[in-house]
Fold this protein.
Amino acid sequence: MKLPVLILVLATLTLGGCQSIGGHGGDSTSPSPALYEQLGKRAGIATIVEDLLYLIVDDTRINEHFAGVDVEQFHTNLTDQLCSVSGGPCTYTGRGMRESHADMNITDTEFNALAENLILAMEANGVPVAAQNRLIERLVPMYPDIRNL
Amino acid sequence: MTYPITFIAMSLALIMATAAQADVGSRLWATGGVTSIEGTAGGGLSPWALLNGYASDEEWSGTVTLSQATTDDYSLNVMGAGVTWQNRVELTFARQTLDLDTLGAALGEDELVQDIWGLKARLFGDVLYNPWGQWSAGLQYKRNRKYTVPEAIGSEDDTGTDVYLGGSKLFFAAIAGRNLLVNGTVRATKANQGGLLGFGGDRNDSYEAMAEASVSLFLDRRWLVGTEYRQKPDNLGFAAEDDWWDLFIAWVPDRRVSVTAAWVNLGDVATLEDQTGAYLSLQASF
């Protein structure tokens, strides 16, 4: 008698998940302004990116990759990119992800380190959990380009 | 009766021993799952395709775990340890001790004890970053350290090896913006009650494929709630064996430690009906 109940619970959760996944998949292709606003618009994103850069500098797993980088330009580009990805009115003018990472041999360890620092920077700026997850969801498709896979 | 105190003392020692370790690996929080009762990374009852600890592709990591499940007529204690190399291979050991609280006098045995060596390899993918999720294959070599009771009730062997294939995938922002972790596992096994009652029996002595699944939702990166289901064989004529399931909540304050609490339903176990109860597991990573 208990097994059918559990299957029902599992099915409900799974189907609910699929519907939501489909819903947000739609968001990804036509970015909603809600995420951009939850990140604090361009000014909020600029602060998050600034905090991210401080975390990167202190992170021995990845800071070597940023040696010699024009920090101001990098800050502007990444802010524009996250603004654009989150549905804001910005245009990313930097190089493509595959091109800019082609010679860097980024490892999983380094990719995880950057993801961790981005999440910590968003947390430090009070970005709601759902908005953090939605931004990460939109960045994850860049994984194969950044890892040069 | 002293066990809870021992448990708490050992738990605190584990936390202090590992708190000093700064480098626990780079994978994101909770992507090592927790430690299942068989020692491998998983939920509580079922192995997941995740590897334990937080080693990413250039790192090592390890875990130690203490778990306890107390149902109406039994209590199971598990001590486990494992290492993971470069998020590729996981090697684990677990010792399970099942106290026969109610049956003990009738059987003339206080407890059943089983050792489990586990090996799991990530075959493909990544639970977070690959659209197809992460896939792993594993085996569990199980050996009864006390075989009098399993033999008496019709078990055919005191050792057995489970082989399984599992997939795990995290869907970002799946439900109300929360991340959803889905796991499915198929296990070939002859184990009776996970092996604590031996392997094979009078009703069946062949490998059978069993399905296991779980879904869990990250409320945030520290809190995870979910449910698991584990199908089981029914090899012994003396008593029917039921499938297992649970509802769990896990707290992963950071990579070094996790605490999992669950309500488990083990069904009928060795003639004693409706074994439900509480499960508590503490894991430390280094």
Notes: The two ends of chain B are 30 Å apart (CA to CA). The first strand of chain B starts at residue 34 and ends at 35. Residues 3-19 of chain B form the longest helix (17 residues). DSSP finds three helices and 14 strands in chain B.
